């Protein structure tokens, strides 16, 4: 069956930076079905011809590669523009007239803020464009708390069934995240050791060099925890800790993730200051460049919004009892870098001397981005003439670009769009996952209620406030060094 992809928010940042370049690349890989149309929806008064030339300019700006003439020729014929204000449900007739010229599956991508979702759904419902197998793809953030998230989900579910709703978390489309399933469940070497008997603790870091760019309004009402922890970090945490699903069906994978999300220990007003450290970047010099403070970036307004968070997490399951998980994420950190680090417990009685237990521990580092790969730190004997057992460590390395030759790590949005178009839900997030993660996130903000929640200032180009180090050092651990 043919399909049509409708993009609400045709000229928005997400469309220009991510969706259109990804669709163009899917064209290049010959993955778009022959008759598929792409219908940009927006308030601009453009004709389709004008829209086509705007898309061409935007692709030139945002794609890191040249536009090939023959590919563009095919791609541009797919493009249509529909001028409509999503707040006027009657306006959706214009869209219906374009769509109903033929019988196709309609995939609606909401590349707009969540406060518009309800009217888009209403408009689609009014025109009977919400029946199966039509579907919607929606972007985070789905709310700012459990309550607001439920409101959005309830509104959407008046018009679309859960199996028609594809919630994006773009980290789920990253190759290194997808590989976590293979790494954990195809390698007996790790499979049997993945619990509190062998693992001492884990660290997950998503660091960014950039500040808030031109998203000040969005970011100031959201902050780093709601923007990054509720979605990407909790997804990674649940995948790296979940039990083996019975198969690769999306519901079975999601069921396992749910068990972890349910077992996240909530915070309370007594422990919150020891377990959650919040920071906000000040002005300073980073890589020789002057950086303005967060407050300056949002227009010199007072704000308690955090641009950095490090959090100690406990998972109350029998597999993970006693294992701390440290999450860390922030803007204006020394570099763009994401990794998962797994620290193993030492051997109980070390025949080479117990001092080695403190000195060297096995460690697995999963480089999520950049330089995607996996490194395993192992302990070895130092080669010497005399028979001595002096030990040191060395690394076993797997690196995508070296080991797979000319490997292409497709952009997450390419993968997500492709699977969304195919109707495969396994890379998308289910409603209960979103709501459970909000329950836990709410426990952070509720625990701060009535107490001081002002983030601590940190200089750009550092790893956040010093208290982030103290938090982990208190347990006898330290952040992995890059
Ligand atoms: C988005 C957040 O979901 O992820 C942004 O809203 C953040 O604030 C971005 O910059 C990071 O994504 P990536 O893929 O560049 O790590």
TrEMBL record:
Record-annotated residues binding NADP(+)? 43, 85-86, 140
Q: In which pathway does it act?
A: Carbohydrate degradation; pentose phosphate pathway; D-ribulose 5-phosphate from D-glucose 6-phosphate (oxidative stage): step 1/3
Q: Which Pfam families match?
A: G6PD_C, G6PD_N
Q: What class of enzyme is it?
A: oxidoreductase
Cite a single GO MF annotation. Answer: glucose-6-phosphate dehydrogenase activity
State the UniProt keywords alphabetically.
Carbohydrate metabolism, Glucose metabolism, NADP, Oxidoreductase
User: One GO CC annotation, please?
Assistant: cytosol
PROSITE patterns referenced in this protein's UniProt entry, alphabetically? G6P_DEHYDROGENASE
| BP GO terms, sorted | glucose metabolic process; pentose-phosphate shunt, oxidative branch
Q: Which residues form the Glucose-6-phosphate dehydrogenase C-terminal domain?
A: 181-480
Q: Which reaction does it catalyse?
A: D-glucose 6-phosphate + NADP(+) = 6-phospho-D-glucono-1,5-lactone + NADPH + H(+)
Domain Glucose-6-phosphate dehydrogenase NAD-binding residues, every copy: 6-179
Keyword flag NADP: yes
Amino acids binding substrate: 170, 174, 208, 227, 331, 336
**InterPro entries on file:** G6P_DH (IPR001282), G6P_DH_AS (IPR019796), G6P_DH_C (IPR022675), G6P_DH_NAD-bd (IPR022674), NAD(P)-bd_dom_sf (IPR036291)
Which EC number(s) are documented for this chain?
Answer: 1.1.1.49
Q: Which residues are responsible for catalysis?
A: 232 (proton acceptor)
Its biological function? Catalyzes the oxidation of glucose 6-phosphate to 6-phosphogluconolactone.
Family from the record? Belongs to the glucose-6-phosphate dehydrogenase family.
- Its recorded name reads Glucose-6-phosphate 1-dehydrogenase
Q: Look up and give the organism this protein is from.
A: Buchnera aphidicola subsp. Schlechtendalia chinensis
């Amino acid at each position: 069956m043919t399909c049509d992809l409708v993009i609400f928010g045709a000229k928005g940042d997400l469309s220009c930076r991510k969706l259109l370049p990804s669709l163009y690349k899917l064209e290049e890989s010959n993955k778009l079905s022959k008759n598929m149309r792409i219908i940009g929806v927006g308030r601009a008064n453009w004709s389709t011809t004008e829209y086509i030339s705007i898309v061409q300019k935007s692709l030139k700006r945002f794609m890191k590669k040249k536009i090939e003439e023959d590919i563009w020729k095919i791609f541009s014929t797919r493009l249509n523009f529909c001028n409509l204000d999503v707040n006027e449900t009657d306006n959706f007739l214009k869209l219906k007239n374009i769509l109903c010229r033929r019988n196709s599956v309609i995939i609606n991508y909401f590349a707009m803020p969540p406060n518009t979702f309800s009217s888009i759904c209403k408009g689609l419902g009014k025109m009977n464009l919400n029946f199966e197998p039509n579907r919607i793809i929606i972007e985070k953030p789905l709310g700012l708390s459990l309550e607001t998230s439920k409101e959005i989900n309830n509104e959407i579910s008046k018009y679309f069934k859960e199996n028609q709703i594809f919630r994006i978390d773009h980290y789920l489309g990253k190759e290194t995240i997808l590989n976590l399933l293979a790494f954990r469940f195809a390698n007996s070497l790790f499979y049997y050791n993945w619990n509190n008997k062998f693992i001492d603790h884990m660290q997950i870091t998503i660091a960014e060099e950039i500040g808030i760019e031109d998203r000040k309004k969005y970011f100031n009402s959201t902050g780093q925890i709601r923007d990054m922890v509720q979605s990407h970090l909790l997804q990674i945490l649940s995948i790296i800790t979940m039990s083996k699903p019975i198969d690769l069906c999306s519901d079975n994978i999601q069921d396992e993730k749910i068990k972890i999300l349910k077992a996240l220990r909530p915070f309370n007003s007594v422990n919150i200051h020891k377990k959650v450290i919040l920071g906000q970047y000040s002005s300073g010099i980073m890589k020789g460049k002057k950086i303005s403070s967060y407050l300056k970036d949002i227009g010199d307004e007072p704000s308690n919004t955090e641009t950095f968070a490090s959090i100690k997490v406990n998972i109350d399951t029998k597999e993970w009892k006693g294992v701390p998980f440290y999450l860390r994420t922030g803007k204006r950190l020394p570099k763009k870098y994401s990794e998962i680090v797994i620290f193993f417990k030492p051997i109980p009685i070390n025949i080479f001397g117990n001092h080695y237990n403190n000195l060297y521990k096995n460690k697995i580092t999963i480089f999520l981005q950049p330089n995607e790969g996996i490194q395993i730190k192992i302990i070895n004997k130092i080669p010497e003439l005399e028979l001595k057992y002096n030990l040191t460590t060395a690394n076993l390395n797997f690196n995508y670009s070296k080991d797979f030759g000319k490997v292409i790590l497709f952009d997450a949005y390419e993968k997500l769009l492709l699977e969304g178009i195919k109707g495969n839900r396994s890379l998308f997030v289910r409603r209960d996952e979103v709501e459970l993660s909000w329950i836990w996130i709410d426990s952070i903000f509720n625990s701060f209620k009535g107490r001081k929640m002002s983030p601590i200032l940190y200089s750009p180009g550092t790893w956040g406030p010093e208290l982030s180090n103290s938090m982990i050092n208190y347990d006898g651990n330290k952040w992995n060094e890059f």
